[in-house]
Amino acid sequence: MGVRERRDAVMERRHFLRFLAGSPLLAQGAVGAAMAALARRASAETPGFPSLIESPGEALSVFDFEAVAARTVPPAHFGFLQTGVDGETTLRANRSAFEALYLRPRVLAGSPQVDTRTELFGQSWETPIVLAPAGSQRAFHPEGELASARAAGKQRNLQILSTVSTSSIEDVNAAYGAPVWYQLYPTSSWEIAERLVGRAEAAGCPVLVLTVDSLAGEGTKESQARAKPLDSRPCVACHASPDAYLSRKPMFDGLDVSAANPALGWGANLGWDFVRRLKASTSMKLVIKGIVTAGDAERCLENGADAIIVSNHGGRAVETGRGTIECLPEVVAAVAGQAPVLIDSGFRRGTDVFKALALGARAVCIGRPYLWGLGAFGQPGVEAVLALLRAELEVVMRQAGTPSLAEISAASIGRR
Questions:
Q1: Neighbour tally for 243: CB within 10 Å
Q2: H or E element that contains 7
Q3: What's residue 263's pLDDT?
């Protein structure tokens, strides 16, 4: 690229970001905040330097991928990716809650090498960073979940596949190179849940992840709604009705979904008896995702759960106003070592991952960061996000004098 072309590209990026940031439709919520931050970056850049990275290798943090995805992902889809619910206090709390925790480094600890391996259900993983289930990934990149699976397999990260994936479990397993974990939105129909579970088990998936925090419905996704008018593409092919939405998802092929309406929740009629029935129906390990209180953690164990994921759906389900890192200690205390505890929602840095491990998490699931990488650059973007977070975690472990995950403890952090 010549000097003139590079300068024109810089100006085009500046104009694009300023246009989005100035739109009254994006004046509120997560999308508006993201665009405002990108506009400030564009305004403050040094002449001759682009405001966006042009390759995954240029990224200094996962937020560099967010900036590119804001431009490459269609506006309505980017709004879907970024949105929280209602006033988005939970979305913000997932990040701000980390500020109440600080690190307690140890000098002269003599830890040049660190071991980031963790174990889940007898299988060793080279890193505790997991790809959380995220549906509709072809909304962000044409290769969708297949690109994410290839990246996760190459970087040796565990992947959990969403029920509403835009690729089948069989294709994702092939792309990953082994069976992944499978996440379940059960719907209100036992027949649908049974068929989904049976298909995942037949595909070799060792673990079933039941998501429970959106069974009764979700709050209003205001940022997503504000982003839609910016998108000039016709949406009726994908969003004409709830039936059309599910029928276009490969995992629902051949299933009667006429009675299932995700807009009303994925199973508001379900109770703990459903968990027991689900556990009895499969040989897969059962993980329950969406737990934020000690009482529900105890009920998970009482009803057969093999592990728990502390999650508030990335601030996309219930407007609790509480970050998951704040919920983690009480869940870990309630479980008392009887089962692994994982966590997601709001993780953006290696320091965030370290803090969760110090509070008792066995592994940390990420969502938006790898989707930013996917939307920005496809598989190479996902690979770069995973590599960045792992490298950041390794640096913090050396600084803290904790050469293995087992040596990370509550003594490694403090609370303001």
A1: 15
A2: helix 3-22
A3: 62
Burial class (CB in 10 A: 0-12, 13-18, 19+), 108: exposed
The mean pLDDT value for 274-299 works out to 97
Catalytic residue check, 77: no
Cβ atoms of residues 386 and 125 within 8 Å: no
CB 393 within 8 A of CB 352: no
Compute the average pLDDT of residues 104-114: 89
Separation in Å, CA 98 to CA 21, 103, 362: 27, 11, 18
Of the pLDDT bands very low, low, confident and very high (cuts 50, 70, 90), residue 29 is: low
Q: What is the predicted pLDDT for the residue at 218?
A: 78
pLDDT at 243: 56
Q: CB atoms < 10 A from the CB of 99, how many?
A: 9
Look up tokens 């209602």; give the residue: 86
Q: And the tokens for 97?
A: 């809650």
Cα–Cα–Cα angle for 197, 199, 205, nearest 5°?
Answer: 75
CA distance 292 to 211: 12
Terminal CA-to-CA distance of the chain, rounded, Å? 49
Mean pLDDT computed over 318-334: 97
Instruction: Give the start-end residues of each E strand in 104-180.
Output: 118-120, 123-125, 129-131, 160-161
Note whether 318 and 87 are within 8 A (CB).
no
Between CA 324 and CA 327 the distance in angstroms is 5
Write down the pLDDT at residue 48: 46
The one-character DSSP state at 6 is: H
pTM over 0.85: yes
365: its two tokens: 């699931």
Catalytic residue chosen out of the listed positions 15, 77, 141, 313:
313
Distance CA 249, CA 184 (A): 13
